[in-house]
Fold this sequence. Notes:
InterPro entries: NGO0469-like
Strand content: 15-25%
Distance between the termini: 42 Å
Largest sheet: 5 strands, antiparallel
Radius of gyration: 19 Å
Number of strands: 8
Structural class: alpha+beta
Strand order of the largest sheet: 5-4-1-7-8
Helix content: 25-40%
Oligomer: single chain
Shape: globular
Amino acid sequence: MKLSTQANKPFDTHPEYNGLAVCVDVTPPKTVQTDYGPKEQFRLVFETTQLREDGRPYLVWSRGFTTSLGEKAALRAFLKQWFGRDLTAAEQKEFDTDTLIGRMAQLVIVHTEGRNGETYANIGLIRPDKSGSTMAPSGKYIRVKDRQDKDTSYNRVSQPASDATQAADDWHFTKVHVGKHQGLDICELDQAAVRGLYDNWLPIAKALAKPLKADRDLMFAVEQAAAEFGFAKPAEASENIPY
């Protein structure tokens, strides 16, 4: 039995899962703050056969990987699990991550609880698919690099800051400048990360007497992202944001 109420829509984290998935993105490397200082990291994005209420496949993001294929690198271990073998000498010499797009896998997705009490969906295990099934990307997911390309060409033409269309488009590419996701675009965050910013950072930012432009932009983007995930009303696109 499934119960729901629109007023209290549950947080849309990928359910725990054991089944088929297909890689739909390798995100561009971003400099992120880690316990060991700033590191260049990227993530792999997978679609699964689990469908959301709107009919779109659920997505799950891998942990952040550095751009290293060294013997002890996390990416090397992940690919070894996925392929069911270690990388060949040729692959170690040169590996094109775009060859991973469209590649299937068997995933085990588990839930963990963060420090803020939110539930996070993580890839607990990845294995090669030996089922003989076929699964292609749905086409409903837009790769991050393609969004960035669109944003770059869009910004070549100056637009009035008050234009509602611009605000509606631009918020997806707002840089997060706080917390553990610093350096990522808001569109790269999963639902749990957005919810964390919405619940924990946004109230503090709104209370600032004179927020910086970066704060105002991120406040607007967080509210828009929260609305997309269904746990808040969208902020109005305006030149004069009321905080």
